[in-house]
Design goal:
The complex is a heterodimer of chains A (169) and B (179).
Chain A (H helix, E strand, L loop, with lengths): L4 E5 L3 E4 L4 E2 L10 E3 L3 E2 L8 E8 L11 E8 L17 E3 L2 H4 L6 E4 L11 E9 L4 E8 L14 E11 L1
Parallel strand pairs in A: 2-3
Antiparallel strand pairs in A: 1-12, 2-12, 4-8, 4-11, 5-11, 6-10, 6-12, 7-9, 7-11
Chain B lengths: L2 H15 L9 H9 L2 E3 L4 E2 L2 E2 H10 L2 H11 L4 H14 L5 E2 L4 H17 L6 H10 L1 E2 L5 E3 L2 H6 L17 H7 L1
Antiparallel strand pairs in B: 1-6, 2-5, 3-4
Helix pairs in contact in B: 1-9, 4-5, 5-6, 6-7
Classes of the chains: A mainly beta (169), B mainly alpha (179).
Chain lengths: 169, 179
């Protein structure tokens, strides 16, 4: 019998206001965007990809079917944290200008929680596997819902990624 | 928040709070002003008017048929030529709109009607003129909501390394720091 190659998982990486890679989603305003701090997978520990899960809640129930859009940005520079797509890599930063929000056009759109009912949430979104081989990662969230996200004291909006890799088991 | 990030935020906040709009406000009122979306009302403007709409209006008021009769009996001169021009424009097929959205076009078109009103051509009155002018007015658009001043103030101020950047909304502690 050949040995099965199954999917192994590494430690989950969390992006949020406290207790993870810095990403201030607390009270993120309508039509505003936020980029996270840079996460560095390290020089020699790259995975073929990761799963992604997003949880959020709003301060006021948004219009049904509007979305908190989640994008991924990276850097092709392997040695120094530079050359980020869309000019990201500034650390945990707010964007509301047209130019700032337009950065998302150069990023990878992966989806995001949709307010599918007339409620504040929480709403969830996930993808089982996102191919990713760049060393550094920045999460970019654009709030296209018309309502601000909940304050962190009410609900800590969070993006979680879990590296996944083939493993002989 | 990293001290360098805090210093950048406080400097930007200090510059913002120096504006006259914040004078005499309490800290809580300043925080509310910083976090309030900026709503800008859209002014009314002018628009082009469909020639067929104007013709329909004049036909309904019996001006068109009277204008045809008036031309037959009117003396030669500018008012008669203006009336003939109006008939040619409104019954022809080459033009679709009166260009009343531009200052020059507006002056030309409304000037033509004003001349005919002055000459009493076809029973055209000031009331008719006013209603044609009303047709050229575009209603004010919906008010445009822009991000709050706070959002503009922290644009591009990032967190250092893996520390948090500025919060998405202003708070009293930051305002106190800047005062």
């Amino acid at each position: 019998m050949p040995t099965s190659v199954l999917v192994g998982t590494a430690t989950q990486i969390v992006f949020r206001d406290t207790g993870g890679t810095a990403f201030t989603l607390s009270s993120l305003g309508t039509l505003a965007a936020r980029e996270s701090a840079v996460y560095d997978f390290g020089a020699a520990s790259r995975y073929p990809g990761f799963s992604i899960d997003v949880a959020t809640q709003f301060a006021v129930a948004p219009v049904i079917n509007t979305q908190l859009e989640i994008y991924l940005g990276g850097s092709g520079d392997e040695t120094t944290p530079a050359g980020f797509w869309g000019g990201l890599g500034n650390g945990d930063t707010s964007h509301t200008s047209a130019a700032g929000i337009a950065k998302r056009n150069q990023l990878i759109f992966v989806g995001g929680p949709i307010a599918e009912t007339a409620a504040v949430g929480p709403f969830y979104f996930g993808l089982p596997f996102v191919p990713w081989t760049h060393r550094r990662l920045v999460i970019f969230a654009y709030n296209a819902t018309g309502q601000a996200l909940a304050a962190v004291g009410t609900f800590a909006s969070t993006v979680r990624i879990t590296p996944r890799f083939p493993e002989n088991q | 928040m990293h001290p360098d990030t805090l210093a950048a935020v406080v400097a930007a906040l200090r510059a913002e709070l120096a504006a006259p709009a914040y004078k005499g406000l309490s800290v809580a009122e300043q925080v509310a002003a910083l976090n309030a979306p900026v709503v800008v009302a859209q002014a009314a403007g002018y628009r082009d008017v469909s020639i067929s709409d104007v013709r329909g209006y004049l036909e309904a008021r019996l001006v068109m048929v009277r204008l045809e009769d008036w031309i037959v009996t009117a003396e030669h001169g500018i008012p008669r030529d203006a009336a003939r021009t109006l008939l040619r424009i409104t019954t022809g097929t080459g033009l679709n709109n009166f260009t009343t959205s531009t200052p020059t076009g507006r002056a030309n078109v409304l000037g033509l009607f004003a001349l005919l009103v002055q000459a009493g051509a076809g029973g055209l009155t000031l009331e008719h003129y006013s209603e044609i002018v009303a047709m050229t007015l575009a209603p004010a658009g919906p008010a445009v909501t822009s991000p709050p001043r706070w959002a503009l103030l922290i644009e591009g101020i990032g967190g250092i390394d893996d520390q948090l950047g500025p919060p998405n909304v202003a708070d009293a502690a930051l305002v106190m720091e800047a005062l």
